[in-house]
Amino acid sequence: MNNKITAQATTSSRPTNQEAKTQTTSWKGLLGLILLALVIRLYQMAEPSLWQDEVWSVYLAQQPLAKMFEILRSQDLQPPLYYLLLKTVIWLGPDNNFLLRGLATLFDLIALWPLYLLARRMAGERAAQIALLLFSLSSIHVIYSQMVRMYTLLALLVLTSCYLFWRIMEEEKPGWPKLLGYVAATTAMLYTQNLSPLYLVVQGLALLLLFRRKSNIIRATLIWAICLLLWSPLLLIFLQQAGGNTFFAKPDLLFLLDSFVAFGAADRAHNGQPFALLALIQPYFAVLGLGLLVWLGLGNLRQRKAERTYLLLFWLVPLLLCWLISQVKSVYADRAFLASSFPFFILMGAAFTSFEVRLTVRGFKPPKLRPFWGPLIGGVLTLILSVASILILASGGYLHDDLRGLGRDASLQLTSGGNRNFLLQFNGNSPIIFDHYLLPSAPPNISGFTSEVEAELNRGPGRVCAITSTSTVLLEFAREPYQRFQTWLITRSSRKQNFHQSYSDESLTLECWGYIP
Predict the structure, then answer these.
(1) 175 burial class (0-12, 13-18, 19+ CB within 10 angstroms)?
(2) Would you call 359 exposed, middle or buried from its count of C-beta atoms within 10 A (0-12, 13-18, 19+)?
(3) Which of 89, 245, 471, 490 is deepest in the core (most CB within 10 A)?
(4) How does pLDDT run across 408-437, given as a tens digit for each residue?
(5) How far apart are CA 285 and CA 260, in angstroms?
(6) What pTM, to 2 d.p., does this model score?
(7) What does the pLDDT look like over 227-253, one tens digit per residue?
């Protein structure tokens, strides 16, 4: 009896030739997708101009630790982990945009592995391969992998946390590597972005809906308690940041829809809102392919109800919760939910689990909608949308020369001379951001229009430039000073507008006037 069992175990542990061939093909496909993702993300990554938040990231990471934490408490809305990691890159090359952005690219590429593991677990090998292809061609991941910001790090950590949570809950006795890996990923997630606790809500809902065993409840409570204990040193900074003012306008339902649609690289004009997830503007008809694939994927997962529910929670709940919270106090930065694109990719990949192409002549019957034509039509529409988005990026449609161009133009307008020169900004951002690309001969920019600034302007003739953006209209603390400046300008006995230039990528405008008090 024992010999028989041993023989069976030995035989079953050896992969057949077909299984070995399938595994080799899967690894080749995975490596090919990694290479594809790498090539797309490296293209134009070193384009010259940093954008506003990138400049802020570099500035924070350049500060001594004590000053960095003080700025985080008083002026920023993010935890410190990404800035601490960025310090090492700045040490290697502080002025090298390729290195600065390479950190985000690295995190984005690493996410391929946990995405593959989660997708295969949820929907099978074919769905995993399709999900990786969609990820590789995803314009939102290409864009954020080329930014000196924390969003790809956050997406990687959230994905790893959610994958390991599923493994810990489904196994009777999960090993220590999974438990320690979950605690490490989840704690790091909390140290990366202040909206990341919303993904713990997803895991809590999954526990209540899918894993209500007593052992799971005890296990989840313990690992969450450890994560929160490790996060507690940051709690004071978190409360200070949460209680401060935010730069986010109250989102409406259309903007929420925009955020979900952006996961598939289709987007509209963000309804006039700043901080939109995707900067590429495309018509909504392209969403038809995305919606068709998700619908088919949900249908193909009907035998995997737990997996389907988990993917839906992961995809929909965090962004929806943030939108609801933002109706009271707006914290709606939808780019913080980049990780929710992963279950979206998996659901679309699941549409192809029953997809087969059979070329027969005798007895040919047109294939049914669901297993053939549905995935084919949805796949073609989605592929066209993805490739079109990548081509827009490759053609320079997302090149950022705005902040550098604005700094150059402002410096030329405010050359040193006999006149008094002033650069005012009404964008709601720190003056540090706009000083980054100013020439040494230009005056530093001043935020707002205070009585002290007005008194200085009234002391003699000169030239004044104003930086505005869409935030100037949306944010009261930026709009009110700009209105007072406009009132002051109208009352000047002599004024002449010398310069007016818009910088569309960042929705910035620079206007300059010569004036006599």
Answers:
(1) exposed
(2) exposed
(3) 471
(4) 899 999 875 557 889 999 987 788 888 888
(5) 15
(6) 0.85
(7) 999 999 988 888 777 766 566 778 888
